[in-house]
Amino acid sequence: MHAVTYELIKEATKGKARRGRLHTPYGTFETPMFMPVGTQATVKTLSPEELYDMESQVILANTYHLFLRPGSELVKKAGGLHRFMNYSRGMLTDSGGFQVFSLGEMRKISEEGVMFRSHIDGSKQFLSPEVSVRVQEELGADIAMAFDECIPYPSDFAYTKKSTERTTRWAERCLKAHTREDQALFGIVQGGMFPELRKMSAQSLQDMDFAGYGIGGLSVGEPKPMMYEVLDQTTDWMDKQKARYLMGVGTPDCLVEGINLGVDMFDCVFPTRVARNGTAMTWRGRLVVRNAMYAEDFRPIDEHCDCYACRNFSRAYIRHLFKAEEIFGLRLLSIHNLHFLLHFTKKIREAIEQDRFQEFRKAFWDNWEEKDQ
Ligand code: PRF
Ligand code: ZN
User: Fold this and answer.
1) How many CB atoms lie within 10 A of CB 156?
2) What is the best residue among 101, 127, 136, 148 to mutate for testing ligand 1's pocket, by most ligand atoms within 8 Å of CB?
3) Using CA atoms, how far apart are residues 109 and 115, in angstroms rounded to an integer?
4) H or E segment at 13?
5) Which of the residues 187, 218, 228, 277 has an alpha carbon 20 to 30 A from that of 265?
């Protein structure tokens, strides 16, 4: 029995949307779910209480960042990530396999692992399947991810095959190195944009019996129709009884389409990143509160939103905060954006329960004004 199990509750009659539950040592969480990103053991500008208020379930932290600073030994001394940051719901750590590969020139891959230079002080560092698993066990999230290579786009068939096979061998090493029984380990399907390599990756990982599966290497610069096509094929080859996590994807349009293709979990820096840039998320798309047109707009960001920011403050006030570079503005938009996405996924769960997800999907696209993106 795994530390984390997925319970499939209901499947849509049209499309592949699923309603499920993730049982973890820190509670049971409802899927499909959106996971707020807390890279450095904090969801930027928000307290755990504020996250509970918006019904946040699982949050994500990064092995790469916490490995470099403050180091997993310190987090272990603090009693693990949950105690260190005082978050008592679910937690997942990404393996570092994505962040390290985003470093470009500063890294060197071999069968053993990846040598890289720290973005903080330039020091030489090494991550491998064994190191990543040890660090993630010390961090102690409910869910750890296997160490993988996120293949750049575009890549040719030969490189994609070589990398995907290595990620499969790394996945085996991760399983072997993993010892914590109160923590689940998820494998990560790679395979680039090649259906046969996706199939090979999904099938060989399935034979290894991970607690759940990430789908990596998507939303790396490919056109969205291509992402949806690859995703559609990939989920067809995945075990229905295990959770599927589409890594680094979570804008409203991708959530709707990803869920329609059978995905259960998403994470994305988008809501918190654009918040810091003066942008609010709405059912129609982005609303740039910083714009001059909102200078005297005393309505809330969204009249129907019941988040703390919308219940208490106007667009004009939030715009003023941004203009004056007051950090409360960042907080208000972060609260609104995360609340928006968490509420959005809750509405999707209700739609799947009532078997009207396709109606929800159609209404979503009718409202959405960012169709070309
Ligand atoms: N691998 C890991 N983390 C990730 C990705 C991946 O491929 C992606 C790709 N969208 C985001 N985060 N380990
Ligand atoms: Zn709001």
Assistant:
1) 9
2) 148
3) 7
4) none
5) 277
Please give the helix or strand (H or E) that residue 132 lies within, else none: helix 129-139
Q: Mind listing the pLDDT tens digit for each residue in 198-229?
A: 999 999 999 998 999 999 999 999 999 999 99
Task: Please tell me the distance between residue 300's alpha carbon and the centre of ligand 2 in angstroms.
Answer: 8
248 closest CA partner among 74, 26, 63, 99: 99
Whose atoms come closest to the Cα of 300: which ligand? 2
Residue type, 99: Q
At 185, give phi and psi (nearest 5°).
Answer: -120, 125
The angle, 0 to 180 degrees and rounded to 10, between the axes of the packed helices 327-353 and 315-323 is 140
Distance 209 CA to ligand 1 centre (A): 20
Question: Any residues with CB less than 8 A from the CB of 16 and at least 6 apart, and which?
Answer: 235, 260, 261, 262
Please name the helix (run of DSSP H) or strand (run of DSSP E) that holds residue 143, with its range, or none: strand 143-145
Average pLDDT, the chain: 97
Neighbouring C-alpha atoms within 13 Å toward the C-beta of 116: 24
Cα–Cα distance measured from residue 79 to residue 305, given in angstroms and rounded to the nearest whole number: 37
Q: Give the distance (Å) from ligand 1 centre to CA of residue 324.
A: 36
**Average pLDDT, stretch 220-242?**
98
Q: Residues 6 or more apart from 244 whose CB is under 8 A from it?
A: 212, 213, 215, 235, 238, 262, 263, 264, 265
Task: Spell out which residues have Cβ within 5 A of ligand 2, the ion.
Answer: 305, 307, 309-310, 336
Is the model's pLDDT at 116 over the cut of 90? yes
**Best probe residue, ligand 1, of 101, 135, 150 (max atoms within 8 Å of C-beta):** 150
First to last CA, the chain: 42
> How many of the other CB atoms lie within 10 Å of CB of 28?
12
Give the C-alpha distances (Å, rounded to integers) separating 97 from 51, 60, 115, 228, 240: 27, 14, 12, 23, 25
Which of the two residues, 209 and 164, has the higher pLDDT score?
164
pLDDT score at 373? 54
